[in-house]
Amino acid sequence: MAISGPVKGYRALVAAGQIISDPAQERAAARLEILDDKLRNYRPTRGAGIFSLFGKSDPLRGIYICGDVGRGKSMLMDLFFKTAPITQKRRVHFHAFMQDVHGRIKSWRDLSDADRRLQSKKLQLPPNGDDPIMPVAKQIARQAYLLCFDEFQVSDVADALILGRLFDALFSFGVVVVATSNRGPQDLYQGGINRELFLPFIAMFEERLDILALDAAMDYRLDRIKGLQVYFAPLGEESDAGLDLAWAALNGEAHPVACDIEVKGRTLHFEICSNGALRESFTKLCGSALGPGDYLAIAARFHTVFIDGIPKLTQTNRNEAKRFVTLIDALYEHRVKLFASAEGIPSELYPQGDGSFEFARTASRLIEMQSEDYLAQSYRA
Prior knowledge:
Layout: H1 6-15, H2 23-39, E1 62-66, H3 73-83, E2 89-93, H4 94-110, H5 113-122, H6 133-143, E3 146-150, H7 157-172, E4 176-181, H8 199-208, E5 209-213, H9 220-225, E6 231-232, H10 237-251, E7 257-263, E8 266-274, E9 277-281, H11 282-286, H12 292-301, E10 304-310, H13 318-333, E11 337-342, H14 356-368, H15 372-375
Parallel strand pairs: 1-4, 1-5, 2-3, 3-4, 6-11, 9-10, 10-11
Antiparallel strand pairs: 7-8, 8-9
Helix pairs in contact: 1-2, 1-3, 2-3, 6-7, 7-8, 12-13, 13-14
């Protein structure tokens, strides 16, 4: 049976009317197809000169696909990953990958000296004391020699300081990397602490990966939400199902991951993030002590926000109402797309009580944010 590749998969989607043919996307699919073909006979050298599990072979160049949101990067990654002709492959959001790496590092450092020597022997590595990078990289490489990263971005100093050594080790074990990102390599970790220490990693990435700028003609994420209902009321199973369908339409098969935002030394943690979209409850967003700076950080980080369970507001929860006003102002000013389920239509959410007069502007914005004109604005990167 013939094995489909990214190009055949892409053309099938076009033929089925699921996407519109785009020359930039087809060129990217063709480049991924070349890598797909090379993977059929690829067996990595796993040992950096220490040992070879499959026999020697030249390392394959990976691919780094960058471009604005909504241009089809995740769709292309879907096509490539599904058809990649190997079993030892892993697709993961980059943030989740780094959380896994830090967990492995901690586990290695928690071992006794004797256990580290034993594990090094099992990994066929020379003893390396408490330095975790090589053994962690070897563990990852043994599990998958094709790593596909969604949303490659670097904002954490702890990540930035280990990425160079980590990926140098992964490449030495023959791992092939394919990544998507809204940023080109030179724009990673912009303004970060000690960024000069991060620059060798950028140089290594540009040396080991082909950089592919995806300049598709249109914002395909806008096409995904065209015609979708964005505000669901009243609350109940029907609203929950509608919000679930909207989330699935926007994010496709991408798996949500947890993510963190640093705000003035504090960390905002969210459990459901995907491709620049956030889904969170009203209680989490407005029932806890968040302020304008937090909401501005959320609006700057996410191009789309889903809010579950907006209640009718009264005098007794006026603090939550004030936070909600501030949140909607931040989202509106940043032109963030809003999907929400609520107990009532916007004009019914805070009809009377202290602050209800000021809430009228929020209700008006909630209505405008459902309009075709508001939703038709291109997604920002």
